[in-house]
Specification:
It contains 16 helices and 23 strands. The protein has a 5-stranded parallel β-sheet with strand order 3-2-1-7-19, with helices on one face. The longest helix is centred in the last third of the chain and has 21 residues. It binds flavin-adenine dinucleotide and NADP nicotinamide-adenine-dinucleotide phosphate (NAP). The site of flavin-adenine dinucleotide has 36 residues, from helix 1, helix 2 and helix 14.
């Protein structure tokens, strides 16, 4: 089939003759490369970082670890890999996950097709030639018939535009761009943000800093991680049911091994309900969310779970002002990403940790060594921004992508992201996104979702190759229907009731709920049906027509 590859007429000097260019070498890009090679495609990965790992390469802040058990949050495509890799903790810390991805790259000899320290700046579709011209930050251009964006949903870090920041003379860090050369020990450290990253970093920073000031905007629900070392017996027990558990996860709502427990929280008597919450407590974020199957759908049931957590917080944080500020209210549990904590509430209870609620007491200025709020100044040698990401769209929009007739993806998505099945975008032929808006990825065990997306895209590329390298493009109607469906499904849940990074905004201020909440299993079935119907909702153009 590779002999049927079309002639390319505008190949740049020094560029390679490839079938597919993949952007990003995280979980998604690595598996995409492996899969395409297996099918005989010539694929190349371009990665901005100096090594593989994506999220786990960049997010090196103290305390970084996964919050889905590592035995679940890992690849399932190779039983040999599963057998040989030994996770040491239930929730592996960042260095171990990075080592795992390095091992995957070495084991499958992936590095030889990865170009590190190189950023993709732009991509232009040439309709006459039927290929993308991809511009790299060294100024070179790489032509490729297919372009796959494995750029990550949480990979474009966001830093707030704080008044007076340019006056601050201390060190400034972002959790997602962590540097070990900045001293923390014995320093006065200020952290902005109490999302998952902040909640993981704060206890570690509190233990090392001379004093810590936490600038919080919205308190989040956090539950104990329940982390522990894994013994040989733990690993052997997991291995016995691993195949069946993986299969269950692929067809589950959230991509976890465990399913939500049946029943409605509001239908149980208070004692039984509390007992069930206690049973789930300590089993991480998934534990609480899976306590009852209606928690993400029914406000009253959700309220019981939320109150259970608030009572737990009250049991740890004695200071009434801190407790009031840190206790989440006003939005349903789980409608913002739940956080996993190891000592967060204990750290916040410490006398040498100060909490500043920036909604009540906003930052108005900075000096060389302090952060000035309405009520006064807080000295700082180091500022840590744990302020998250331009989620779901940021990394894609940072590339100047021009589709048919020069259509700019960036401009187009400024009016709300759109994608068919979260995988392809009308107007942008032969372009695929992994974990794009409209896919369930960020609302699931992301690795399970990535494997599904990659398998589907690879199968699609093989089908196109069998048709002589035909060109595929999502149809606008199918895309619109999918985005409407994505929104409709979201509205049936409690997710839209919170302000969260799950939501994007159009130019005129309309909210767009970006992930697909219909469930990993349902989504898989839908994608398979689309493929079985000859890629329904896509237009496929034979190469002979160009
Ligand atoms: P990424 O890992 O983000 O990789 C994308 C890569 O693309 C990056 O290396 C980036 O440098 C590269 N890139 C982007 N743009 C360009 C460009 N223009 N040119 C060249 N290279 C580019 N998910 C879970 O399911 N469970 C968890 O426990 C969990 N924990 C997380 C913890 C943290 C701290 C964070 C930030 C996220 C976490 N996630 C978790 C989500 C996580 O992002 C995914 O699980 C997964 O790692 C994403 O893999 P990816 O390959 O899709 O993207
Ligand atoms: P995040 O959840 O978006 O949190 C960013 C935090 O910064 C929020 O608390 C936000 O407040 C705050 N913030 C933003 N601007 C601020 C300002 N000007 N002043 C004060 N606070 C400000 O980002 P994240 O913590 O990096 O996590 C992102 C996602 O990555 C998570 O939801 C999760 O999916 C994943 N992750 C997972 C883990 C894990 O445990 N495995 C760890 C880290 C990340 P508002 O909420 O008010 O905007």
């Amino acid at each position: 089939m590779q002999g049927e590859r079309p002639e390319r007429d505008q190949r740049a000097a020094g560029s390679e003759d490839i079938d597919v260019l993949i952007v990003g070498a995280g979980f998604a890009g690595l598996y995409m490369l492996y899969k395409l090679r297996e099918l005989g495609f010539r694929a190349q990965v371009v990665e901005a970082g100096s090594d593989v790992g994506g999220t786990w390469y960049w997010n090196r802040y103290p305390g970084a670890r996964c919050d889905i058990p590592s035995i679940e949050y890992s690849y399932s495509f190779s039983p040999e890999l599963e057998r040989d890799w030994r996770w040491t903790e239930r929730y592996a810390a960042q260095p171990e996950i990075l080592a795992y991805l390095g091992h995957v790259a070495d084991r499958f000899d992936l590095r030889r097709d990865i170009r590190f320290d190189t950023r993709v700046m732009a991509a232009d579709w040439d309709d006459a030639a039927g290929h993308w011209a991809v511009t790299l930050d060294d100024g070179s251009t790489q032509p490729t018939p297919h372009l796959i964006l494995a750029t990550g949903a949480l990979s474009a870090p966001k830093t707030p535009d704080l008044a007076g920041l340019d006056k601050f003379r201390g060190d400034i860090l972002h959790t997602a761009l962590w540097r070990d050369d900045v001293a923390i020990d014995g320093k006065r450290v200020a952290v902005f943000g109490t999302g998952s990253s902040g909640i993981q970093a704060i206890p570690q920073l509190a233990a090392r800093a001379a004093q810590l000031t936490v600038f919080q905007r919205t308190p989040n629900f956090a539950v104990p991680a329940g982390n522990h070392p894994l013994t040989d017996e733990d690993r052997a027990t997991a291995a016995r049911t691993l195949r069946a558990d993986r299969e269950a996860a692929r067809h589950s709502p959230l991509g976890f091994f465990s399913a939500p427990r049946p029943g409605a929280a509001k239908a149980q008597d208070p004692a039984a309900r509390t007992q069930r919450f206690e049973e789930q407590w300590g089993a991480g974020t998934a534990g609480m969310l899976l306590a009852y199957e209606d928690l993400l759908f029914d406000e009253e049931s959700n309220g019981f779970a939320a109150q259970f957590i608030r009572d737990k917080i009250a049991g740890i944080v004695a200071d009434p002002d801190k407790r009031r500020a840190i206790t989440p209210t006003g939005y349903p549990l789980g409608s913002r990403r739940m956080c996993s904590e190891i000592g967060f509430y204990d750290a916040m209870a410490r006398d040498d940790v100060t909490l500043v609620d920036v909604r009540e007491n906003p930052v108005i200025d900075m000096t060389a060594d302090s952060i000035v709020t309405q009520s006064g100044g807080y000295p700082a040698d180091v500022i840590v921004f744990a302020t998250g990401f331009d989620a779901c769209v940021g990394a894609i929009k940072s590339i100047d992508i021009r589709g048919r007739a020069g259509l700019s993806l960036r401009d187009d998505w400024d009016n709300g992201p759109r994608a068919y099945l979260g995988l392809a975008i009308a107007g942008f032929p032969n372009l695929f996104t992994i974990t794009g808006p409209g896919s369930p990825s960020v609302l699931s065990n992301v690795v399970i979702s990535i494997e599904q997306h990659v398998d589907w895209i690879a199968q699609c590329l093989a089908a196109l190759r069998a048709r002589g390298g035909a060109i595929i493009e999502a149809e606008a109607d199918a895309e619109q229907a999918w985005m409407a469906h994505t929104d409709e499904v979201a509205q049936q849940t409690l997710f839209p009731r919170a302000d969260s990074w799950y939501k994007g905004r159009t130019r005129d201020g309309r909210e767009v709920f970006m992930p697909y909440v219909g469930g990993v299993g349902t989504y898989r079935v839908r994608c398979d049906e689309v493929a079985a119907a000859g890629y329904a909702g896509f237009s496929i153009r034979e190469r002979t027509s160009i």
